[in-house]
Amino acid sequence: MPVYKAPVEDVMFLLNDVFPIERYNNLPGFAEATPDMVEAILGEGAKLCEEIFTPLNRIGDLEGCVRNADGSVTTPKGFKEAYEAYAAGGWMGLSMPEEYGGQGLPSTLTVVMQEFLSSANLALGMYPGLTQGATAALLVHGSAEQKKTYVPKMVEGTWTGTMNLTEPHCGTDLGLLKTKAVPNGDGSYAISGTKIFISAGEHDMAENIVHLVLARIEGAPAGTKGISLFVVPKFLVKEGGSLGERNGVSCGSLEHKMGIHGNATCVMNYDGAKGWLVGEENRGLNAMFVMMNEARLAVGVQGLSQSEVAYQNAVAYAKERLQGRALTGPKFPDKPADPIIVHPDVRRTLLSIKAFNEAARALLVWTALKSDIAHRSSDDAERQSADDHMGLMTPVVKGVLTDLGFDNAVKAQQMFGGHGYIEEWGMSQFVRDARIAMIYEGANGIQAMDLVGRKLGKDGGRAVMAFFNEVGAFCQENANDESLKDFISPLQQGLGHLQQATMWFMQNAMAKPDNAGAGATDYMHLFGLVAMGYMWARMAKVANEKKVKGNGVADKMDAKLLTGRFFMERLMPETASRLACISSGADVTMAMPMEMF
Amino acid sequence: MPVYKAPVEDVMFLLNDVFPIERYNNLPGFAEATPDMVEAILGEGAKLCEEIFTPLNRIGDLEGCVRNADGSVTTPKGFKEAYEAYAAGGWMGLSMPEEYGGQGLPSTLTVVMQEFLSSANLALGMYPGLTQGATAALLVHGSAEQKKTYVPKMVEGTWTGTMNLTEPHCGTDLGLLKTKAVPNGDGSYAISGTKIFISAGEHDMAENIVHLVLARIEGAPAGTKGISLFVVPKFLVKEGGSLGERNGVSCGSLEHKMGIHGNATCVMNYDGAKGWLVGEENRGLNAMFVMMNEARLAVGVQGLSQSEVAYQNAVAYAKERLQGRALTGPKFPDKPADPIIVHPDVRRTLLSIKAFNEAARALLVWTALKSDIAHRSSDDAERQSADDHMGLMTPVVKGVLTDLGFDNAVKAQQMFGGHGYIEEWGMSQFVRDARIAMIYEGANGIQAMDLVGRKLGKDGGRAVMAFFNEVGAFCQENANDESLKDFISPLQQGLGHLQQATMWFMQNAMAKPDNAGAGATDYMHLFGLVAMGYMWARMAKVANEKKVKGNGVADKMDAKLLTGRFFMERLMPETASRLACISSGADVTMAMPMEMF
Question: Taking the model in full, what pTM does it have?
Answer without folding.
Answer: 0.98
